[in-house]
Write a structure and sequence with these properties.
single chain, about 240 residues, mainly alpha, Helix Hairpins, 2 domains, 4-stranded mixed beta sheet, CT398_CC_hairpin, Oxidative_Scav/Glycosyltrans, coiled coil
Length: about 240
């Protein structure tokens, strides 16, 4: 049975308390509610960004389609105007005038058809721009919400990190001067036993696993010297006797 000063064994309880506090703080840091909020917002933002990219591409396609429709109308209108001007001058032959009138009729029909196409594209573009505005607004709101959530997370992180630094400093003071072998044993057990390496023996109950020691184990512990480092037979943790 290893030996260590009684005072050092009792100091392990202070160290354990600080270690437990540190574990709780780290767990709190990793499970902040705002972290889940950020994850959800990031996922929604990715979906919205994809939808926004598709919507902007569609708007660009419709804009090009409208430009082409406008150009087509302009070309026909220009030719129609030119032919009408030639016809109005009266400086053309009867045969040419007849050909111009025939072409003017065809161009007028074509102009009406192209204007219908232009109006259709304009209406589709206008409707899509409204949808695009809705997506852009949703995207902007998510960006703002994510920024707020990240700011909240950083503020909570800072507060927790500050407390962790303070507890860590107190722990360094608490372990100073403790028997090296005892401290090494404590660290080994703590690592393998869920963060608890030492516990108080409360009557016949282990403060670590909360199980009652049997009579034989309890007699062995009571008969051991005060400097003997005893351990719980159930969980293996160091038992500090009061």
């Amino acid at each position: 049975m290893p030996q260590a000063p009684v005072a050092d064994q009792r100091r392990l309880l202070d160290v354990q308390s600080l270690d437990t506090h540190l574990t709780q703080l780290r767990h709190k840091r990793n499970t902040l509610e705002v972290l889940a909020t950020i994850t959800e917002l990031q996922s929604r933002l990715e979906d919205t960004a994809t939808a926004l990219a598709h919507s902007r591409t569609r708007a660009s396609d419709l804009t090009r389609e409208l430009t082409k429709a406008e150009d087509d109308v302009t070309q026909v209108t220009t030719r129609l105007t030119r032919n009408q001007q030639r016809l109005d001058t009266g400086a053309v032959s009867a045969k040419d005038a007849q050909a111009l009138m025939h072409e003017i009729t065809s161009l007028t029909t074509r102009q009406a058809e192209l204007e219908d196409v232009q109006i259709d594209v304009m209406e589709r573009l206008e409707a899509h721009q409204e949808a695009l505005g809705t997506v852009e607004n949703a995207h902007a709101q998510l960006v703002s919400a994510l920024a707020d959530a990240e700011q909240d997370r950083d503020a909570q992180f800072a507060a927790i990190d500050q407390e962790i630094a303070q507890i860590t400093a107190r722990r360094q003071d608490a372990v100073a001067g403790i028997d090296d072998a005892l401290l090494a044993l404590y660290e080994k057990i703590r690592t393998s036993r869920g963060g608890v390496g030492a516990a108080l023996l409360e009557g016949r109950q282990c403060g670590g696993c909360r199980l009652d020691l049997n009579a034989g184990d309890l007699d062995a512990i009571r008969s051991a010297s005060a400097e003997s480092v005893v351990r719980c037979e159930e969980c293996g943790r160091i038992l500090v006797r009061d």
